[in-house]
Write a structure and sequence with these properties.
By secondary structure, the chain is α/β, with parallel strands linked by helices. The chain has helices at about 20-30, 65-75, 95-115, 130-135, 140-155, 185-195, 215-225, 245-255, 270-280, 290-305, 325-340; strands at about 15, 35-40, 50-55, 80, 120, 160-165, 170, 200, 205-210, 210, 230-235, 240-245, 265-270, 305.
């Protein structure tokens, strides 16, 4: 097996998977200034002059590359960041498992050829196993969580050094609110703003752990730059996570800037969700469009909410800045503002009041414009576990 490479003093080469995703775009912004970036991509071109694209397929043996091409790629790579994952819970469970498990194995094989450590992006929600009833109702979410937990085991047993990174829900940028793709949770929050959600599953005090994409990307970048090659890190809000009632209140406060404040949704305890709400919406009299919407909300919130806080490594050695509850609320408002300005948002309505500036991390000055790419705040921008 090759010896682990010493990173060159100028710009080490990082192989990134999932560069077109929510976190992948933020990672490009974070790493591009001081790394050479080689991005594996399958269908979606990145069209970003800061990166070199290599057409590959994580689901094919050898990444779909010829032996010579794979060896040339491995010879250039100093570190690997594996961010690609199947996050569409509507897909077949076996397809989700195949993508997340076999894709990780293929990346680890290339990393071993390269003699390069792997930074593996998992999800904090491996700590939220679904109950048997929930697994039966939501097989896609169950397959996603199980496959991410299995992939972590594969990384631990690999012949290369590995860092396991567990972000919670990845929001849009903390300063601009922008995100590269529509997230399920963003759509759910937008529906609350529009007053389209009479009922939500979960207790008012349940934690909805969300962290802006630039904060997660900064933590990954700091770990890479510090030469960390082992360990497990929780990239979460932890005890600072917003409670479900705070998230709902923030959405209603935002809605009031554009018009009448919607009625707050009724929050149902989980036992009532299973006993009353889900059987009701699955009945034949319930319209199909509403059935899909409420199943999505129930699935997301059953996975994403949590009674006890996650651990959090943010603010620790080589792991980016901490977050605060007040800062997360400001970031949520900016995310809502970006959603409102986009397709399906509130572009047809004129805001009556403007959001007040805030700060996310307690740094001396509030960030009101895009900072340099090193901070992970993209100048132009996405989710999951984004779903």
């Amino acid at each position: 097996m090759p010896s682990w490479k010493e990173a060159p003093p100028d710009r080490p080469t990082v192989l990134l998977t999932g560069g077109s995703g929510v976190l992948g775009r933020a990672l490009i912004d974070e790493l591009a200034d001081d790394h050479r970036l080689v991005c594996l991509r399958h269908r979606t071109p990145l069209d970003d002059p800061r990166v070199e694209e290599v057409h590959a397929d994580l689901l094919r043996p050898g990444l779909g590359l010829g032996t010579a091409e794979r060896d040339r790629l491995a010879a250039r790579v100093d570190a690997v960041v594996h961010s690609a994952a199947a996050t569409n819970w509507r897909a077949a469970p076996e397809a989700i498992r195949h993508a997340n498990l076999n894709g990780t194995r293929a990346v680890l094989d290339l990393a071993e050829r390269a003699g390069a450590p792997v930074h593996h992006i998992s999800t904090a929600f491996v700590a939220n196993p679904l109950a048997p009833e929930e697994q039966e109702r939501f097989p896609g979410a169950a397959a996603y969580l199980a496959s991410k937990a299995e992939a972590e085991q594969v990384v631990r047993k690999a012949a290369v050094p590995g860092v396991i990174l567990r972000p919670s829900v990845v929001m849009g940028d903390s300063a601009t609110g922008r995100i590269a793709g529509a997230q399920g949770l963003t759509r759910a929050l937008g529906a609350i703003v529009k007053g389209q959600v009479p009922v939500l599953p979960g207790a008012p005090g349940a934690r909805i752990d969300m962290v802006p994409q630039d904060v997660v990307a900064r933590a990954v970048g700091d770990l890479l730059r510090s030469g960390v090659t082992h360990g497990e890190y929780w990239l979460t809000a932890g005890p600072e996570a917003l409670l479900q009632r705070e998230v709902v209140e923030t959405c209603l406060e935002f809605a009031a800037r554009y018009g009448p404040r919607p009625q707050p949704p009724r929050l149902l305890p989980l036992e009532s969700v299973h006993r009353l709400l889900l059987p009701l919406i699955e009945g034949p009299a319930f319209p199909e469009s509403l059935r899909r919407r409420f199943r999505t909300y129930a699935e997301l919130l059953l996975v994403f909410q949590r009674a006890l806080p996650f651990d959090s490594s943010l603010g620790g050695p080589h792991c980016g800045p901490t977050v605060t509850r007040a800062g997360l609320r400001e970031a949520l408002l900016r995310n809502l503002a970006a959603w409102a300005a986009g397709p399906g948002g509130l572009r047809q309505r004129r805001p009556r009041t403007a959001p007040r500036p805030g700060t996310l991390t307690g740094e001396p000055a509030a960030r009101t414009a895009d900072p340099p790419a090193r901070t992970g705040n993209p100048a132009a921008l996405t989710g999951e576990p984004a779903a």
